UniProtKB/TrEMBL annotation:
Protein's gene: gpsA
Natural source organism: Hypnocyclicus thermotrophus
Organismal lineage: Bacteria, Fusobacteriati, Fusobacteriota, Fusobacteriia, Fusobacteriales
Residues noted as binding NADPH in the record, renumbered to the chain: 11-12, 49, 106, 141, 255, 279, 281
Glycerol-3-phosphate dehydrogenase NAD-dependent N-terminal domain mapped to chain residues: 3-161
Catalytic residues as annotated in Swiss-Prot or TrEMBL: 191
Cellular component GO terms held in the UniProt record: cytosol
Name of the molecule in the record: Glycerol-3-phosphate dehydrogenase [NAD(P)+]
């Protein structure tokens, strides 16, 4: 039995806390808002993000940060990418070299263009950075709490990634490991952007051919982008690449796909985001990826189109036409 501190009691943090508790661990679930933490302590449920599920006794809910890491073997972050840095700052002084840091968020920090393990590394001043593991794959919280068979990949230094693999695995949650933290993080971050494009396809009422085109050409863009950062090519045919891309582009649970669907139906991005209580990471990540692709001269027509729709308020039908009428080229270039 290990003590695990989970920071972020949104849908994913709560689902993972439940899984770790079921695996027999002592879990401390830290919630950002004091009032919401109090409500969860009282009801023993997380009604705001994952209603209807009782939290077992081996999950302690808290909003307090003092001494939170005492006796902890693992610190897990499940925080929206643009807020992750603040959350690390709250606990970084308590870290010791024997604590493994697991990040489960998916995105790129817009202000710095850093991957999330790089944000963590910066905040812990490079100390213990070999302890950082990214956990990513096709894993909607709503299905994990129902114990539907799910697979995921833990990426980091081999020994640490394997420890995380052991920690989470059970008969409905199968964890693979990888040493390609860069590829696993980029796969998770960029698929959220492509899922917005897939949602637009749904919202416009286009067909399965179009959805398949977005997924396949989206994967080509993700691989092309990631090559610039020395990610392993094979990672993108794996769980954190194609696997997560498929689930996010097709799932009824996906918040990113939903944003795209509403855009496709003609709604304004601010109205869509204001109407959601959960994070859609693809929106800020499109901005970060667009800027990086311009800096590094990486051809990313889907990302470019999404940027123009979301950040420049361009007409979706006009953009779709431009995408289809580009110069013809070889499939793999
Ligand atoms: N949901 C899913 O199925 C999956 C999600 N992920 C990833 O996990 C990450 C978290 O997503 P998810 O749980 O779904 O998000 P939710 O929108 O469900 O919850 C977000 C959580 O982050 C907290 N939060 C918001 N702002 C801050 C802040 N400034 N500091 C600390 N905490 C903050 C929220 O607290 P509060 O409610 O108090 O505002 C809430 O607990 C994302 O990167 C997502 O891509 C990965 C795999 C699956
Ligand atoms: O990452 C996820 C599934 O693997 C969750 O995707 P959404 O944030 O689009 O719901």
């Amino acid at each position: 039995m290990s003590k695990i501190v989970v920071m972020g009691a949104g849908s994913w943090g709560t689902a993972l806390a439940l899984l770790l508790a079921e695996n027999g661990n002592e879990v401390v679930l830290w919630e950002f808002f004091e009032e919401r933490a109090k409500e969860m302590q009282k009801t023993r449920r997380n009604n705001y993000y994952l209603g209807g599920i009782d939290l077992p006794d081996n999950i302690t809910i808290t909003n307090k940060i003092e001494n939170i890491l005492d006796g902890a073997e693992y610190l897990l972050f499940s925080i929206p990418s643009q807020n992750l840095r603040n959350a690390i700052q709250l606990v970084s002084s308590q870290l010791t070299e024997d604590i493994i840091i697991i990040n489960t968020g998916k995105g790129i920090e817009v202000s710095t263009k850093l991957r999330l393990s790089e944000v963590i590394k910066e905040e812990i001043l490079g100390k213990y950075h070999k302890n950082i593991v990214a956990l990513s794959g096709p894993t909607h919280a709503e299905e994990v709490v129902k114990k539907l068979p799910t697979t995921i990949v833990a990426a980091g230094e081999e020994e640490k990634a394997q420890k995380v693999q052991e920690l989470f695995s059970n008969n409905y949650f199968r964890v693979y490991y990888s040493t390609d933290i860069t590829g696993v993080e980029l796969g998770g971050a960029l698929k959220n952007c492509i899922a917005i494009a897939a949602g637009i396809v749904d919202g416009l009422g286009y067909g399965d051919n179009t959805k398949a085109a977005v997924i396949t050409r989206g994967l080509a863009e993700i691989s092309r982008f990631s090559k610039n950062f020395n990610a392993f090519e094979k990672t993108f045919s794996g769980l954190a690449g194609m696997g997560d891309l498929i689930v996010t582009c097709t799932s009824q649970h996906s918040r990113n796909r939903y944003v795209g669907e509403e855009l496709g139906k003609g709604k304004k991005i601010d109205d869509i985001l204001n109407g959601m209580n959960m994070v859609a990471e693809g929106v800020p990540t499109i901005k970060a990826v667009h800027e990086i692709s311009k800096d590094k001269n990486i051809d990313m027509p889907i990302i470019e189109s999404l940027y123009r729709i979301i950040y420049e308020n361009e007409n979706i039908l006009k953009i779709a036409k431009v995408l289809m009428e580009r110069d013809l080229k070889e499939e793999f270039y």
